[in-house]
């Protein structure tokens, strides 16, 4: 479900008419699932405020991947979108993500202190990003088992 797929009013109406579970119920189930997966380990959680939900978990590495608008657009154009469509999509997604985090966690998605590691992918190859992540995970694992 996208971050802003249903307005609160629409969600409430759907809940009253028993069309869908409440937005709060979906959020609670998402949180429980993320907590369960994080405790089990060997999981990658992308989005949904996973870094806020797992804040303080000793076995979790909270990572944020960032990139400039220009590079993000170029990547989406390679996938078949026009530059205009890509820009619109990026702006809408970024706004929806910011609003989701603000609404559910009363936090700012851009606060760098909410992450253990932030990687700007503009000038790194995918393989280099993977190497950085593997090194960070190994370091975290070694510290846990020391």
Order of helices and strands: HHHEHHEH
Counted beta strands: 2
What Rg do the Cα atoms give?
A: 18 Å
Largest sheet, strands/sense/barrel: 2 strands, parallel
Q: Report the CATH C-level class.
A: Alpha Beta
Fraction of residues in helix? 55-70%
CATH superfamily: P-loop containing nucleotide triphosphate hydrolases
The secondary structure category is mainly alpha
Shape from CA axes? globular
Low-confidence blocks of residues: none
Task: Estimate the strand proportion.
Answer: 5-15%
Average of pLDDT? 88
Number of domains: 1
Q: What would you say the CATH architecture is? A: 3-Layer(aba) Sandwich
Q: CATH fold name, please? A: Rossmann fold
- Whole-Å distance between the termini? 40 Å
Give the gist of this structure.
This protein is mainly α.
Describe this structure in words.
The structure is a single chain. The chain is built from 6 helices and 2 strands. A two-stranded parallel ribbon has the order 1-2. With 146 residues, the chain is mostly helical. Helix 4 packs across helix 5.
Please specify the SSE layout and strand pairing.
Layout: H1 8-16, H2 23-40, H3 50-53, E1 63-66, H4 69-78, H5 83-105, E2 117-120, H6 126-144
Parallel strand pairs: 1-2
Helix pairs in contact: 4-5
Fill in the keyword field for this structure.
mainly alpha; 2 strands; Rossmann fold; two-stranded parallel ribbon; single chain; 146 residues; 57% helix
């Amino acid at each position: 479900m996208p971050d802003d797929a249903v307005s609160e009013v629409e969600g409430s109406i759907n809940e009253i008419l028993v069309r869908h579970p409440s937005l709060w119920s979906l959020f609670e189930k998402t949180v429980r699932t993320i907590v369960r997966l994080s405790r089990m380990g060997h999981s990658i959680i992308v989005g949904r405020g996973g870094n806020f939900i797992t804040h303080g978990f000793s076995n979790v590495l909270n990572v944020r991947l960032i990139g400039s608008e220009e590079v993000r657009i170029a990547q989406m154009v390679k996938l078949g979108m026009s530059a205009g469509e890509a820009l619109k999509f990026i702006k809408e997604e970024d706004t929806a993500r910011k609003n989701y985090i603000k609404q559910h966690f009363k936090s700012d998605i851009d606060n760098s202190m909410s992450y253990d590691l932030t990687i700007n992918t503009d000038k790194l190859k995918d393989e280099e990003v993977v190497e950085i992540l593997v090194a960070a995970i190994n370091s975290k694992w070694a510290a846990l088992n020391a």
